[in-house]
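seq as requested:
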Amino acid sequence: MKYTYKKERRDPQIQSYMTDKGKRWRIRFTITIRGKRHQVERQGITSFDMARSMKQSIISDLESETGYTTLTVEEYFEQYCEEKLNNGSWRYSTYARSKSMFKKRFYPDWGDTLMIDVRRGDYQRWITKLIKDKNYAHNTASTFSHIVSSVFADALVNDDIPKNPIQKIKISGTKPRDTSMTRSEFEKVFNYIKLSPSLSTQERAMAMLATLGLRHEEIDGIKLKYVKDNMIGVFEVLNLHGEVTEPKTHSSKRWVPMTPLVEEYVNQAIKETKKVYAKKGRIMSPDDFIFVSHWGNHVRYTQLTQVFQRISQDTGIHVWPHKLRHAFSTIAFGIEGINPRDIANILGHSKLDMSMFYNNGTDEGKQNVITKIGNMF
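struct tokens:
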């Protein structure tokens, strides 16, 4: 039988209609709960109050039956980090860095928010303000937001949230630190490392290894068994947290040739380290680190940072290990006849594109290009 429905002024989602048995009420509405659309219709209800009570009950049931997580951001993120570490997806350094970043930057404003209640607009406004307040570089902000988005993507795949609320967020930020060096700047830094009396034997050797393109943690993690003839083996690294782990990628495992000068400084450092061990009543073994404190413990990650802070202050050139890594690539690619694949192998890159990315070019190089082109015509 076809009925004529009349909306109730008290609630338009409830309509009344007449039947052979008297007046009845119908509930009819569409509702979206956390991204999921539900169409509801019930009729034959004998009173308006009963219809209104039934409506609220239906909404409550739908809200509890969505299957989405009721975990807060902090609870879900903590579980995500633990799982990444336990299944081997993350090295401990990545795990510790991510947890620290979440705790300091994300949890204070978002930790108590339910995962399903995070909204794109709110996050966009928050990240924009954070970047401005902290004066973050664009790359730093992008890395941060990417990791946060990855956690929400994980929740989406696990059907814990209806959608990833922060994908394709617009990221601002300042320009990254300038990693370019002129040839004269590199020579000034190199000569300082080579000759300055303010550097100890170990500090000089560590800084010299950075000029060959070795990463910070790779230098810290060198053991005696990885020094053979004129080669340095990179097969273990010592991270910021004092843990010995595998190198960054599979291609990072490599043998790197040393120049005679670097080899000389490394051997001098090893002689000093052997004396340190001897004072402690032990013989240096192949598994011992070649760079140690006077107590015989491996050097702290911050020690090399402090060395380069001193170099920067004394030379007036802001430099750090990663910048010298870029400088090595730039200089190597500028040498005629060198195989680009060999440069990538020294740097521990599986793809030439990455090594080329490290090649910043120089003003001298640009002038050389123009000169050679001018000589052709």
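Strands lie at 6-8, 11-19, 22-33, 36-45, 227-228, 231-234, 237-238, 244-245, 254-257.
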